[in-house]
Amino acid sequence: MADALTSAASFVVLFCASAIVSGQLRYSIPEEMELGGFVGNIAEDVRLSVWELSARNFRLISDEVEQYLQVNGDNGILFVSKRIDREQLCRQSLSCSLSFQIVVYDPEEMHSFTVEILDINDNSPTFQKNEFTLQINELIAPGTGFPFESASDPDVGTNAINTYEISPNEHFGIIVQTRRGGSKTAKLLLQKPLDREQQATIQLILTAIDGGNPSRSGTARIIITVEDGNDNVPVFDHESYSATLAENVPKGTVVTKINAVDADEGSNAEITYSFTNHVTKMIRELFKLDPRTGHLRVEGTLNFEKFPLYELDVQATDKGLPALTGHAKVIVNLLDVNDNAPAIHVISSSRTVPENAQPGTAVARFSVTDLDTGVNGQVHCQISKEIPFTLQRSSSNDYNLVTNDVLNREATAIYNVSILARDGGSPPLSTQKSIFISVSDINDNKPQFTQSTYNVFVTENNAPGSSIFSVSALDSDIDQNGDVTYVLLNSMIDQISVSKRVRIHSKSGNIYARISFDYEELKHFQFQIQAQDSGSPPMSSTAAVNVIILDQNDNVPSIVSPSILNGTISVDIAPQSVYPGYLITKVIATDADTGQNARLSFQLLESTDSGLFTVDVNSGEIRATRSFMDQELITSRLVLLVKDNGQPSLSSTATIIFSILPNSTVPSSESSAGLRESKNIFNLNLYLIIIFGSTTFLFLGIIILLVVVKLKQNGNINEGYSSGFCCFNPRSSDSTIDPRTSVNKGSSYVRSGQTEGYRYTVCLSPESSKTDFLFLKPFNSTLPFNELGTLENSARK
Question: Which residue, of 533, 550, 567, is where some domain finishes?
Fold first, then answer.
């Protein structure tokens, strides 16, 4: 290792230098460099200031290079991060380098770099074995060469094996040959004939020396046994055989056939073919040589990309004693076939792009490679034409993925951009790689109500605070752009703010009643609601809500006609006009409710005489079932039920008192007309009755006064009474005059459908011829007919 470090000193100049070659920056460093060793100042070489490194996201792109090299993001210095063993990295390739790219953004720049790994002389030549044996017939003529296994040295260039030396002796020399590719081989050269009898065994020291400074060497012992006999070696047809075959030929394919002849006879001419010791184990796994026929066949899987050419050393050995061996070469050239699909490497990718991004916006960058050569390595990339993206080629193997149309997140939120890379082989090979691009949302959609107008039906007497309806508005945007809140747009209804009647939950859209609605006061009202998102700027829409109050059966029927007082209705009946089906009165009732709740029906609950009246269920008309008889009661009582058709039904009752009036001379048609007009002229009748009554009482007073005066003058007053004036009492049991059918025995006055009866006692003198005038005496004229019987019975008692 010390020698390696000493050798590395010669590369100080190369280590510190960098140059631009073919548009690339190139550094050279020796292998086995210490960890952290300086490679180059990339920031300085690409003319970037230190502050730009982090600001422009300065980074290295290469999975392979990152194992060995790293870049300091603070100062841009490229340094060694892992031990670099050139022999392990590049084997014995003359050129060994690491390539990578450096990318900076805003604006995006890419620089390619190559770090050449220089070989140092850190390996000594070694032989596969420490000791080799040779059997050489003494008949071999001077000048014959004897190849032996070459030493191996992992180093390359001047550090590889440069020459071979052999210990001093009198028979053998050494010939050093340079093979295609620059490797050195050696063979012993017989310079002087052997004499087994003089020296049967010869021991030599073979030394392999590399070209390093200082040089390294390795040795092996050669033991030569001198034999008698077979003095002709097998000779090949050609010193070198060549074959060309495709890299994908199947196992068992014949590469070529080698052939050698031996001039000897018998066993000394029997030849066996084999690989020489120069052929490595790897090649022996790929090819197989038939020892008897000389056919060289493919044994393993060939790969043009790893080794496009193979050089095999073959030998033909006879069976003489000692055996003689002839040597030849077989060179196998591989033809490239399209057996490698293109590889896609994503350099950078924007995971999201706003939906309002302008066409031409770059969203990803990638490169393609193909290990094949020629047309097999020519790659073409394409994507689907159905998506709003396109490819732009920035260099031979680099592409940019850019937008070429307007994006709409609500239509497509995520794009799976499938990149197809196809090479030019026949048949072509292809590779697909998907890049997922998410479209970020902008607030370009306003909330939409499910309906522009909602009709809400609410039954009156609802509980305050209860939910009466729920509205919903949908927003195609997401996150805060799709977060909808609801607002009640305040307005005045009958000079009352709608917010005092209802409220709306800002998140759920539930509408709540603040008050209990009364159908009889408010049948419907309308208000506006607004749905607004939380975007910037926010977007909104409105909808109308019609609240329709539904009626409940919460009002009892009310009787409006005839007039009712303390639950009682008074109705007077003129008996002479009553006949079966006669309309006594019509009860009119109303209900503040509507519909079935206001559909009324009438029912007779109680009646003084159940067979006297009937009530129409629907109209409320009370009709007589028959004509009234003389003996009928002068009053009748009914209890009438009025109920609605609601569920449950509500009802009210009223008591109707029918008063049966005495007979009247007024025709029934006139009486009926008077009844219909009574309401209009009630006050006038009252005045007329008062005037007429006053005049009658005044007239009767005057008559009585005149009668008293006259009786006193004649002195016959007591006699008249005692002589038994005949007094006629219309209520007398033996009277033959019916006051209800005769109007000549009394006086009756009818005004506007109301009858007032005046009853008189008529007295006649027994001596009618001597009577000066008729005496009329008023009799309970102010009492109603229904009390006359009571007074009469009292008088009799």
Answer: 550
Question: Could you tell me if 503 and 567 lie in one domain?
Answer: no
567: left (phi over 0), alpha (psi -120 to 50) or beta: left
Cα 500 to Cα 467: distance, rounded to the nearest angstrom: 15
Closest of 729, 758, 744, 741 to residue 664, by C-alpha: 741
Helix (H) or strand (E) holding 281: helix 281-286
Write the burial class of residue 379 (CB in 10 Å: 0-12 exposed, 13-18 middle, 19+ buried).
Answer: buried
**109-118 and 24-30 as β-strands: parallel, antiparallel, unpaired?**
parallel
Spatial strand order of the sheet with 453-459 comes to 453-459, 540-550, 524-532, 485-489
pLDDT in tens, 37-88: 898 998 888 888 888 888 888 888 876 776 788 888 888 888 888 888 887 8
- Spatial neighbors of 99 by CB under 8 A, at least 6 apart, are 62, 65, 112, 113, 114, 115
For residue 262, tell me if it sits in a domain: yes
Give me 262's structure tokens.
């031996």
Domain stop point among 118, 137, 168: 118
Average pLDDT, the chain: 79
Q: CA end-to-end span of the chain, whole Å?
A: 166
Residues 517 and 570 in one domain: no
CA distances from 440 to 357, 412, 678, 724 (A): 10, 10, 88, 131
Q: State residue 724's pLDDT score.
A: 38
Q: Are residues 182 and 262 in the same domain?
A: no
Residues 466 and 522 reside in one and the same domain: yes
**How many other CB atoms sit within 10 Å of the CB of residue 229?**
14
Is residue 632 very low, low, confident or very high in pLDDT (cuts 50, 70, 90)? low
305, 308, 313, 314 alpha-carbon torsion, rounded to 10°: 90
Contact 187, 224 (CB under 8 A): no
Residue 681 is encoded by which pair of tokens?
A: 């002229």
**Sign of the four-CA dihedral 298, 304, 305, 308:** positive
Residues 704 and 754 in one domain: yes
Give 324's contacts (C-beta < 8 A, 6+ positions apart): 137, 230, 231, 232, 233, 234, 262, 264, 268, 317, 318
The burial of 169, by beta-carbon neighbours within 10 Å (0-12 exposed, 13-18 middle, 19 or more buried), is given as middle
Regarding whether 724 and 651 lie in a shared domain, the answer is: no
Sign of the CA dihedral running 121, 123, 128, 131: positive
Burial class of 116 by CB neighbour count within 10 A (0 to 12, 13 to 18, 19+): middle
Q: How far apart are CA 630 and CA 36, in angstroms?
A: 142
Whole-number Å distance between alpha carbons of 125 and 217: 5
Domain count, the chain: 7
Same domain membership, residue 569 and residue 537 = no
474: helix, strand or coil: strand
Domain that holds residue 276: 231-335
With respect to residue 670, please indicate whether it lies within any of the assigned structural domains. Answer: no
Least confident range of 363-372, 547-556, 708-717: 708-717
Q: Based on the domain organization, do 148 and 103 belong to the same domain?
A: no
pLDDT of residue 684: 61
648 prior amide bond cis, ω within 30: yes
Q: What local confidence, expressed as pLDDT, does residue 568 receive?
A: 85
For the stretch 428-465, pLDDT in tens is 999 999 999 999 888 888 999 999 999 999 998 899 99
Angle at 645 between CA 641 and CA 650, to 5 degrees: 55
Structural domain contains residue 531:
yes
Confidence of residue 565 (pLDDT cuts 50, 70, 90): confident
- Is the pLDDT assigned to residue 762 strictly greater than 80? no
CA nearest to 117, candidates 15, 46, 5, 23:
15
pLDDT tens column, 124-174: 898 888 898 988 877 788 998 888 788 888 888 788 888 999 999 999 999
Percent of the chain scoring above 70 in pLDDT? 82
